[in-house]
Write a structure and sequence with these properties.
- The protein contains 16 helices and no strands.
- The chain is globular, with a radius of gyration of 20 Å.
- By secondary structure, the protein is mainly alpha-helical.
Length: about 350
């Protein structure tokens, strides 16, 4: 039974995001790698969960509608990928992990490259071990867990006060943030499909796959900042791990959230969302703005809004600031406007939070 559960978890939270990401990159005709597909695929899954769940929550309909509609959307994206043959070379990505990992002329990996890969994998293993052994729980943990269990038991979303157990006539306080950023709905969706208790899902299983996304972003950032040398990229990831570990100074630092509180949506925003946006903005600075990258940014912004109200604020703030900097440096306010457009979903969700 454990083996079957493990396989289904890998299929839903690793293979499915890669396939969805591959379909998205093929649809947008962008260069892809297994790392990019994993991250953007996961962001796409969260973005569609946000788009689907918000109206169903507002009309106080059954959670089963989210399960059915979301599953159909994922299935349609997968079918598109098969029709377009997006997965033909997937096995090559898995074997090589990244086109630049192999040395020149496809020769065997050099000792330096192997050492760089081992540094990256070792850093990832250390962080996962620290998360499992040092994981922090608090009142937010209880509220989040109660919301998910209530969704699975009643098939209703955010109609119960997690503190008192009473039915909520109107949303108020922290419940409003849960309604606008229903991260608990995605965890409930995974728990429902996999038949795994939500506490195990959000405290153990989901964070492991999110760490894979975080280090995939680090791997891509290392190429943009350092270059293609695998040994230096491995050292960069090792350095990032040391920084994150060193930043564990209190329960309120962003490094602490990444290391021991990754089950929280705001932790994923700071640990994964911000580095991902930085990576995309660096790519925009080098290659310019076009409609394809705007679509990717829109998916990321909606996904961050799904994770936390902090994602709404940070997403809009980063888009606004970078658009301003880009317009000044590149002297292209038209392209800067394209970057600012990606913050529109953030303002929409913030507006909804005001009128709830």
């Amino acid at each position: 039974m454990i083996i079957i559960k493990s396989i289904t978890c890998i299929l839903l939270l690793f293979i499915l995001p890669i396939l969805i990401g591959s379909s998205v990159f093929d649809f947008l005709k962008l260069e892809k790698s297994i790392f990019k597909c994993l991250v953007i695929g996961m962001m796409t899954m969260w973005a569609f969960c946000q788009i689907v769940s918000i109206p169903i929550i507002f009309f106080k309909q059954s959670f089963l509608f989210v399960v059915i509609i979301l599953s159909l959307i994922y299935l349609i994206i997968l079918i598109y990928g098969f029709v377009k043959k997006s997965y033909t070379y997937l096995y090559q990505w898995i074997l090589s992990l990244d086109k630049k990992v192999l040395s020149h002329n496809n020769r065997t990996l050099s000792a330096c490259n192997v050492f760089g890969i081992l540094l990256a994998l070792g850093s990832l293993a250390i962080v996962i071990f620290l998360f499992i052994s040092l994981q922090h729980t608090d009142a937010d943990d209880s509220r989040f867990g109660v919301n998910i269990v209530d969704i699975l038991r009643t098939h209703r979303m955010f109609i119960t006060d997690p503190g008192t157990g009473e039915i909520i006539g109107h949303w108020y306080g922290e419940v409003v943030r849960d309604v606008i950023s229903p991260w608990a709905v995605f965890i409930a969706y995974c728990s429902y499909l996999l038949r795994i208790h939500p506490t195990i899902m959000f405290h153990f299983i989901v964070p492991i796959f999110i760490y894979l996304c975080v280090y995939s972003v680090y791997w891509n950032l290392s190429r943009q900042l350092i270059g293609d040398e695998v040994i230096y990229r491995g050292l960069f990831i090792c350095f990032m791990t040391v920084l994150n570990t060193y930043g564990y100074a209190s329960v309120y630092t962003s490094e602490t959230f990444l290391m021991i509180r990754l089950w929280q949506g705001k932790s994923i925003v700071t640990g994964l969302g911000i580095p991902l946006l930085i990576s995309i903005y660096l790519s925009i600075y080098k290659r310019g703005v076009d409609k394809r990258i705007i679509v990717v940014l829109l998916l990321v912004e909606i996904a961050l809004a799904h994770l936390s109200g902090m994602g709404i604020l940070i997403g809009a703030l980063m888009a606004g600031c970078y658009g301003l900097v880009y317009g000044i440096l590149k002297k292209s306010w038209r392209e800067a406007l394209g970057i600012w457009v990606t913050a529109v979903p953030c303002f929409i969700f913030y507006g909804l939070s005001i009128f709830v």
